[in-house]
Amino acid sequence: MALTTLDAKTALVVIDLQRGIVALPTVHPASEIVQRSVVLLDAFRRHGLPVVLVNVAAGAPGRTDQGRHTGDFPAGFADLLPELKQQPSDHLVTKRTWGAFTNTDLAAYLREQGVTQVVLVGVATSIGVESTARYASELGLNVTLVVDAMTDMNADAHANSITRIFPRLGETGTTQEVLDLLESSRA
Fold first, then answer.
1. What does each C-alpha distance from 8 to 61, 63, 110, 124, 155 come to in angstroms?
2. pLDDT digit of tens for each residue in the chain (187 aa)?
3. Does any domain span residue 1?
4. CA atoms within 13 A on the CB side of 169
5. Which structural domain range is residue 85 located in?
6. Gap between the Cα atoms of 129 and 62, Å rounded
């Protein structure tokens, strides 16, 4: 873990903390991931930094070996958790692919806000979080991955993302490390 700094204009991007996703069996208790994410949400909002809440409402078309959900999800599946306390100032991104940038307005929104760094949390580590991190990195954004505020449905996939992929896409750290940097850089 090598979290060094937060840029002046850093956005928190919360991936798929919604009813249908957190109801799935995960490696780490979803309640702990939600709790840590809420702490970060509160801190980013308190400091007037951009907050992006991402949900997934459908699957992308195409064939895979494991099959793919290509239609709409059941009613309520995409509803954000009430614990996130969605605010009018939060930017909502509804995606239909793994990553939060593809076919959404996320890149344009971050550009308009002058964001140079994103802090990512959510579910699933190897799917929505990793796909979003890859795209953010490709856009030239500084990427911070809060590894104790994310989980996956597969332990091996989670570990692979955290140990092999994320260190190549950005900096990794804990919720407390992000909070400490947020407080010290905004004091």
1. 38, 42, 13, 27, 34
2. 579 999 999 999 999 999 999 999 999 999 999 999 999 999 999 999 999 999 998 776 666 565 655 566 778 999 999 999 999 999 999 999 999 999 999 999 999 999 999 999 999 999 999 999 999 999 999 999 999 999 999 999 999 999 999 999 999 999 999 999 999 987 6
3. no
4. 28
5. 10-185
6. 21
> What angle (nearest 5°) sits at the alpha carbon of residue 75, between those of residues 69 and 77?
60
Are the CB atoms for 44 and 5 separated by under 8 Å? no
Q: Which two tokens stand for residue 69?
A: 């959900």
Which letter does DSSP use for residue 139 in this model?
A: T
Q: Following DSSP, what letter does each residue of 39-101 receive, concatenated? A: HHHHHHHHTT--EEEEEE-BPPPS--TT----SBPPTTTTPBPGGG---TTSEEEEESSSSSS
What CATH number is associated with residue 119?
A: 3.40.50.850
Q: Report yes or no on 97 lying in a domain.
A: yes
Total of domains in the chain: 1
